[in-house]
Design a protein that fits this description.
Blueprint: H1 5-9, E1 37-40, H2 59-64, E2 68-72, E3 78-82, E4 86-87, E5 93-94, E6 97-105, E7 120-129, E8 132-141, E9 153-158, H3 163-174, E10 185-194, E11 201-209, E12 217-225, E13 246-250, E14 258-262, E15 266-267, E16 273-274, H4 276-279, E17 288-290, E18 304-306, E19 333-336, E20 343-346, E21 351-352, E22 358-359, E23 361-369, E24 378-387, E25 392-401, E26 407-412, E27 420-426, E28 431-438, E29 442-451, H5 460-468
Parallel strand pairs: 6-12, 23-29
Antiparallel strand pairs: 1-29, 2-3, 4-5, 6-9, 7-8, 7-10, 10-11, 13-14, 15-16, 17-18, 19-20, 21-22, 23-26, 24-25, 24-27, 27-28
Amino acid sequence: MCGEIDKFVSSSKRKGKFDFQTTEKQLHLLRYPLNAITTEYQSSMLTNPLNSSSSQQNDSIFNRCNRGIGMRLKNDSIVCFCSPHYHGDQCQYHTDRISLIFHINYTHSKYTINTDPSIVNKYLVLFLQDDLVLSTNEFHLRPTNEFDHLTKTRLYFHYSHSNESIEQKRQRYFNRFNIIHSQPFSIRIEAFELKLNIKPRRFAVWEYPIYFDFLPVYRFAKILHFLDSTKKSMNLCQNNSCHSNEECYQLQNQPSRYKCLCRTQYSGPLCTQLNQFCVNNYCSSNALCQPEYRGLTQGNQWPYCICPLNFIGQQCLLKPSVCEKNPCRNNGTCYQELRPYQFICTCTEEFLGERCEKRKGLIRFYLEDKTRGFHHEASVIQYFRLDLIQLELHLMNQDVYSMFPTHLKYFHNEKTNPEIVLLRIHSLDEEQIYLLAVQLNRTQLIANLSIDQNNQCQHIQSFISSNQS
C-alpha cells in the first residue's frame, strides 16, 4: 500500500469546501519496529492562577487626559503624560506619524549560515527632512539567525508639530502638483557590523523618499535587499566626488546612485566641522561618534554614539554582565542583546528553548542494506505527520542522499515525533519503498533496521494482480 503514498498525501487538496471535521479518529496501528527504543509523550496541564486586583481611580484625573495618564501634583493641579501618538496639555491632539516595517533579506549578502554567530548587525534608521536628521531609531539582527526564520521590525517616527511644520504640510496637502519631483522627507537606513573588541563598521546604505508626507498616518514597508556580490557591477564609489572627510556608499536599493556620508566625529557641509564633544571622548573608545545623528526632535546638541558589540547606553559606557555566568543550559552559548538584561541563547542541535532547557524530539536509525544488489542512484528519507482528524499524511521533513544512508539522525521541535518514516531508494528506472517506522505518540525513537523484503512496501497493483489470477 505504500505505493499509493503520494495520492494519500495529496488528498488534502481535494477536501470539500464545507468539511468541518474536528474530532480525532481512534486508530489502532501496529507499532513498527517492535524492538525500537522509544519514549512516550506525557501530556500535562499547567495551571497558572491569576490574581486579580482592583484599584480605584480618580475620575477627574482619568477624564482629563484623554489618551494619556494624569498625575495630581502637590498644588492639586493635574499634569498629563501623553502616549507618543498624541500631544497637547490634555493629550487632545493627534500626532502625525510614519510607521515603518522592515525585513532584511540576507540572500545576496556576504553572510551565510556558517558566519560567526557572535557577529551582530546594527541598523540605524534616520528620518530626514532636506538631509537634516529629525529623529533616529535603531534595531539589531544576528545574521546567522535570519536564515532560519523571518524577522519583521516595526518602528515609527513622528513629524514635528511646530507651527512651521504644520503649515508646510498644509501647503503640500492642498498643492500636490510637485509631489513626484520634490520630497522633503526621506528615510535612510545605515547598516553597521559589530564584532567583539572592534569599532563598528558601516557597510551598507539604503535611502527612500517619502511621497505622501501630507497624510496624518503613513505606513512604509520595505524588504531591504543587498546588492548581489557575485555579480560584477560598476562601483560608483571608485570615482566619486566625496570630500576627504566623507565616505562613499553605493545605495543598495539604487545601484546607479551613491551617497557621501560623514566619517566619525565630522559634520556640516562637506563634513568639514570636527565636533569637539567627539574629540573630547564623549563616546567610549571603540564607539563611533556621529554629530547631528541624534536628530532635531530629540536634542541635537549632543552627538549620537554607535556602540560596539556588548556595550550599551547613550555614551556606550555600560557593559552588561548577564552572559558572564552563562544562563544558557546544556552547553548553549550566550550572546548579549541591546538591553542590559536581554540575551539570546544559541543551542546545540539537540536542545531548544529560551535557555536551551528543552530537549528536541529525536529519531535515529542504524540501517543495514540487504537489498540484494539493487543499484542505488539516490535515497530519500521522508518523515510524515498523521492527521487523525482528516486522516491525511503531511510531509514534515525530507532528506536526500546520493548513496545508501547507514546512520540517520533527525531532530525536530514538535511535541511528538512524526508517526511514519519511509525510505525511498531510486535507480535509473525503478523505485523501491521501505517502511522504517510506525510509532504514535512518541518523543524519541532509536532503532536498528535491516532493509530487505520484510519491510518493503508493495504496490497496490501487485495485490490486484494476485487476486485476479
